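Review box. Two proteins, two foldings.
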Amino acid sequence: MTKRWRIDLAYDGTGFHGWATQPGLRTVQGELETWIARISRSPEPVALTVAGRTDAGVHARGQVAHVDLPDDHDGEHLACALIKALPPDIVISGFAPAAAGFDARFSALWRRYAYRLWDDLSRPDPLLRHLVTKVSGELDLDAMNQGAATLLGLRDFAPFAKYREGATTIRDLKTFHLKRLDDECGTIMVTVSADAFCHSMVRSLVGAITAVGSGRRDLDWLARTAVMSTRCGEIHVMPAKGLCLEEVGYPGDDGLAERAAASRVRRLRSELEQR
């Protein structure tokens, strides 16, 4: 018999080749699976399921994962030992038995990302340079928010996604807006949330909207781009360092299993229709 554990974690993505395990490369999943297997003395490799697979260099404050382990393990011991063993660029904030029906990926209702920018009106802090992307010129946030609003809703985001064989690009973009923070740097915060995201979708959306804000592109270009059936080569994929997974939303415990089942069916149907 096994028990499912929910893991809440954060990490600085600078030193990782993304979330997913890759032979010979340092990844967040690889570090976690290695240490969990050692601490739990598992004779078999352990497998983590994650809410959002982040790319190389992307950070996370609110990542969520789950792992199934034999039910005779002491959860408190596992959590304490894992927290002490992990490198300083991964921090575990929660390690607890998962509610019935919980699936870190399929039970999720939405994921929220933030992308941080500095423009010529900002005052960059060198100590934060690996968390924020600097762009040239002064960005027009009004034009950017106007353009961002036109992309909201359920639609095909193929123009803003890297192609993956058999993968659907239909997503429900729930939030996309920008504001300049009242911080010492004058950082521009781009907030994006959706039911799920395609590969490089957030960085492509920010790249497209930044082109509008800089005056290199206009809203008509954005409208034409948004209805393309394939990836738009004119969109600049923004650097990974400015992106952070901030939060993953789930239903109440009584809705976890239903949400996971519905997500699996919808994802399978979408992928079959895409082929």
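Next protein.
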Amino acid sequence: MTQQTPLRRVALTLAAAGIPVLPLRAGKVPFGNCRTCAGSPPRCGGRPNMKTPGPCQCPAPCHAWAAATTDPHVLTSPPWDAAWRRAAAVAYHPGGAGVTVVDLDDAAAVAWARESLPATRTVPTTRGEHWIYEGTVRSVNDVRPGVDIKSSKAYARWLGSGTGSTAALPDAVRALVVKEPPTVRRAPQTLIAPLRAGQGECRHRTPAYLERGIVMAERRITGATSGVHATVYQTFLAVLSTHGRCGCLTDTHMQRLFTAAQAKGETARHCTDAWTNALTTLGL
């Protein structure tokens, strides 16, 4: 008989209420994509760039927010059961539940919300608060200092039901996600943004050095607690400044960085824009 873990009990309760859930591992990040999906190109039924809503066809939690489900059979299947035993928290897909989370990361952001937004259901977090509104919008990080918007194609930690009544999504929140972040050059919405340098093995670094660099870059993105847009761009810039001219970077390396960024709530378009802007800055 499968052992029922406390986190999975919470997940099943939420799923029964129509809230799509997924497990998070330590560091508040989803479980990594399976080997098939981590390949380039991926070969599963969904897409890691998350242009296609809904979960992929993998038998285990995969593709961050797109893994979220309300299906109790999936949540209690053996691959997912193993994930729940290793999980550190429960997350949910706000957009799939029909809500928007205004993630206030610090006291200053909370003070701004109390002055600028209508009262709604509030959930305390480690350093700030989640304000929950009825209705959905696209998800955007860093809409103002210490404020992220999590709704469609994003995930948020489940920290309890909170207090207060859920208000309708106000125009003030909708306005925060309308303005596009500035870009140097519009890029296609694709994970492929090829370098203009030569191909082949890096001539000045060993493969092990490159691998360590990619792992460190993934950790830097994953560990970002605020300023995710800026962290992603600076990380892409650092990787490309070291390896962008010698041709050692592959689509697989780029996809790993994009996957880490998307797990923090970035969209495929924002990842592509950040990558393209870094290429432009470096003259590649």
